Amino acid sequence: MQLGRALGIVAIVLVLSPSVAFAHAYPVQSDPAPNGALPRAPSRVQITFSEALEPNLSRVTVYDSRARTVQDGPSRVIPNVPSVVVAPLAPHLPNGSYTVVWHVVAADDGHSTAGVFVFGVGV
Asked: Coil, helix or strand for 38?
């Protein structure tokens, strides 16, 4: 009887534990920062996530205020740092507002997360 109760408690803890049952990759750092105001355009957008990402299914896209992409090539997960995605930006971006759209898939469990943030250059 005691063993059955102990196993039941362990099963409940495993099911209710977010780190075990509901792991997702979320941003923990970004350069530029969300809602950041920069004096000049960055050369890239880099986002660090809470866990390793699936490189073929994770991406970042950066748009200008007219919804045109402003990247100088596709985004990529850094091979030796699989929790970081980098999107190279076109050189000499003009002053204005930029929107970063990200969609990533966690490498360990396949859960996907997505989000959006903005930053400004010279505004």
From this structure: strand
Give pairs for 112-117: CB < 8 Å, separation 24+. 112/24, 112/57, 113/24, 113/25, 113/26, 115/27, 117/30, 117/34, 117/35
- For residues 35 and 117, the answer to whether their CB atoms sit within 8 Å is yes
Name which of 121, 122, 116 is nearest 30 in CA terms.
Answer: 116
User: What confidence score (pLDDT) does residue 24 get?
Assistant: 87
pLDDT in tens, 32-78: 999 999 999 999 999 999 999 999 999 999 999 999 999 999 999 99
Angle at 80 between CA 93 and CA 22, to 5 degrees: 90
> Do residues 47 and 119 touch, judged by C-beta distance below 8 A?
no
15 vs 37, residue with greater confidence: 37
